[in-house]
Amino acid sequence: MTTEEKLEFQAEVSRLLDIVANALYSNKEIFLRELISNASDACDRLRYAAITNPELTAGDPTFRITLESDPDSRQLTIADNGIGMSREELVANLGTIARSGSAAFLNELGDQAKEVDLIGQFGVGFYSAFMVADQVTVETRKAGEAQGWRWESDGKGSFTVAESEDAPTRGTRITLHLKEDAKDYLQPTELARIVKTYSDHIGIPITLVKAEGPGETLNSAGALWTRPKSEISEDQYREFYHHVAHAFDEPWDRLHFKAEGAMEYTGLLFIPSAKPVNLFDPERRNEVKLYVKRVFITDDCRAILPPYLRFLRGIVDSEDLPLNISRELLQDNPLLGRMRRAITKRVLGELEKKAEKEPESYVQFWETFGPVLKEGLYEDLDQRERLVKLTRFRSTEGDGWVSLDDYIARMKPGQTAIYTLSGDELAALQRSPQLEGFRAKGVEVLLLTDPVDEFWMPAMGEYEGKPFKSVTRGGADLDSIEGEAETAEKEEPTEEQSSGLDTLVAFVKLTLKDKVKDVRISNRLRESPVCLVADDGDMDLHLSRLLKQHHRLDAEAPRVLEINPKHPLILSLAKMAAAGNGNAGTIEEASHLLLDQARIMEGETPLDQAAFARRLSGFLAQALA
Ligand code: ADP
Ligand code: MG
Questions:
Q1: Least confident of 25-34, 107-116, 461-470
Q2: Same domain, 212 and 274
Q3: Ligand 1 in contact with 68 (CB < 6 A)?
Q4: pLDDT band at 257 (very low <50, low <70, confident <90, very high)
Q5: Residues 162 and 267 in one domain
Q6: Which 8-state DSSP code applies to residue 181?
Q7: CA 362 vs CA 20, 41, 62: distances in Å
Q8: What is the pTM of this model?
Q9: Neighbours of 375 (CB within 10 A)
């Protein structure tokens, strides 16, 4: 027998344990929920493994979780006959931050004050045992392996691992030596209450072992989703969600349905109210668990849901899929594709209902998961029409969210396009000079801040016959729109001013020749003297910036500098340009400054920062002289 080995916890775990052990959190009883949840997962995993390798459960095919309390030694034991852990798994799972609950908890950790509450919101998985125990012993034997292991820790920086002769024949037994103030958790009535509260939905019997005779089963012990809806309470649904999703928020919505006929399956799906931590991982993994006839198969089944619905949590339990098929082959089963389409329609139907009946609540959903749902607009052409109606936008009309139908209802006579403006940040977009003319005429513009908008909008092209058109691209066709009468409509330039403007444009163009594609008189500006736009056939400014950031583009797409023919600064420059001769130097300097100013309004830096500073100082000195 090898001797005991002492190992250090990963630094994050030590930090977590420190918080957990000293937490003043009053709801410590959730440790039992966490340990039972793990025991149930372990049984699910063994049940699946035994389909292809029945040897694993031979001799003991009935899964169970047992609780046992011993007031004399102040010990509480939670045991399962699930899959167990090998030595490597033991060290990895109970020495590092394995995943879900604890990882999310650490991610959210901010100022000390909030930490206590967060434990309840996220649950900290196995480590929550240290809220109530000063010594934890885990004895485990992996199904099919001969050697058992013992893990032990007081939760203070390190743990020990050693071979164990006393480990269960199969599965895991966790013994907690309870802290003085946690003695209540030794009482059978208290244990029964806690199990009923948090773990009633667990599909495996949880039994309290009694010294004097047969144990008492504390939970309902049937798969929750097979029960009639009318017999499931809100609390049971919520606790099931916490268990299945490894999440601890209130679900925003729930769908519990049974499909019968050509395909038979049950679904119990939840839409969280909080963003799961891995939502934007590049794998875009779906986490809805697939069961076949109550047997857990996998929580990584790409075929059961499209990636744009990956915010869903819960289970789908099929009656038709074959049980003894590998996870890999399963993905190709055509039945799964049909289930995916049917489930997608059902989920979209539910979202449509929410959007119509509870628009305010729907907006909360949209703020959390809208950018994910929008991926469907270019990935799922079958559902695009429905998805686009579910899509909400920020716009220049008010602070809320608008739908495309709202937008169309507000279009002005003569307006043929749906106008958009893209950028990184809403506040910066609101200040964009390109919006000035639209604002002045009361023409609404959608403000887009999700990168995904740059892909689906061009792909879709239009909605109800109205093309999407970026206000930073092409000429602004404002003249043909009968907008609201502009209050401070400035006078049209005189003939003399006009000819000065033409000269100025030609001069600026010459000065900035390799820095812009063109210089033009603008009709979209009101307050600002200049702005940048893209030519009709060129790439939108924001998209070009985005691609350059991601190294998909070497240089920015060419842009056009537009100048405001009614702006006093421009008119002064035009006058100077018309007068000719000695003014060339000043106009040249001003041209560079105007371009830099337009760039700054786009959130970019001046082309040459030193030159910009020098020019600005020059003009300031002149003005102050
Ligand atoms: P999570 O359950 O969110 O993964 P936990 O901290 O609760 O995080 O558990 C960490 C890991 O330890 C689990 O993912 C599992 O691999 C392993 N584990 C915990 N308890 C058991 C158990 N009773 N049987 C087998 N494995 C377990
Ligand atoms: Mg867990």
A1: 107-116
A2: no
A3: no
A4: very high
A5: no
A6: G
A7: 35, 33, 44
A8: 0.84
A9: 20
